[in-house]
């Protein structure tokens, strides 16, 4: 009996060490600058609740149109291709791009502030909906630029040897890159958690405010959010100070081991993509999004084929299989904004409760990332995606149950304890740790295996490919919202007239369709890839 207890104790001790102690032991001061940039991206969630309510209550945009906007908002992330190559070409000056990104974010926040603080003045220049679209495009452009630099900084931050100059073995390098990428996700989620807590405080009692007072509160949130670009720029300043300190101590800084040659197809392809997107986005062309998606995917696949020549044949096949699995997993459609509108209108979820859900999601995602880090370091990406896919299917059921009124039945039999909010919190508690880990293994693989002089380019191209999946998801979401139409009540903030009424009768069929697609397609693709020459065990 004592032997069994001793064995159990050693297992618990070993798990604790692998999960928590080893993570802390691997921390480096050099990790902090990119983590600050990632943290700033997480803090962007400060305006998510405000944006959702402002869009729902004051802008007359359909669910299908909003889903289509998500497609255009995702395009700047595809531009990580030429941006990543620019980082490789101008490695010493890459931090300047952080300032450019911060300028875009600042402009977006100021536009949104003026929309809620002075809608009449903004409408006198151009319609509020058009201003909203401009702000929606500026923000992801800024964050995408900063993310490219942060990715490159993570490679620079991971040491290749210990303090005695002993080079780390391959398994140690793999563990450290996995840790660095995990910490990057943790920094983003920590930002979400922090601002969710702030939102809970800000929106305390907001349900009792008049609409005019709510707009004043929304404007205050956007002014507070101006701290976001300041935070990312501070990370760049700290990075420069740390690099100078290392030089004074005689350390060799990370530099590409050979000169990076200009890849004109990447730069010219990126420029052509920008021109095409602007022309089609401003033209009255019915299939503009589909055309941009098809052309963009073709260009990215071409660039990937060129980059894969830099890898060994076996590595190239593994990367193709890995990217395919991640792409399909991220490409499944979502319910769209109609689900949030239903929760606000029919279930009575207010700003403060949505902030509570965001905080719970972030905190549990942090814990999940830390606990699952050893799993990600020792399991293949295919196994990780299978786990996430099955979990996503199971966790789509509570939202469906809420739509069909299960909370009314449970509340009646539990004295009101298991109501809609209880079910929403329980679903969030189980779901949140799983949605944040899909990209970590692939990012760590690139950090370990991509050629040193093309690290940022590999990060950018592969990220562009997987971000194309989000564009595909947005298109799928738009199509489903056109089939299953969901509308909500909208009031013009200037005239007070009702522009549309709520209709959630088709939301149930939408949720069922999304749940089935989200499970069947990813599992089928994992099966096909793992039974082909492109299978991945890394």
TrEMBL record:
Chain ranges passing through the membrane: 35-54, 61-79, 91-116, 183-202, 222-242, 262-280, 286-304, 316-333, 353-372, 384-402, 510-529
GO cellular component annotations of the record: membrane
Protein's membrane topology: Multi-pass membrane protein
Keyword terms, alphabetized: Membrane, Transmembrane, Transmembrane helix, Transport
The protein's name in its UniProt record: Folate-biopterin transporter
Subcellular location: Membrane
Predominant subcellular localization, coarse grouping: membrane
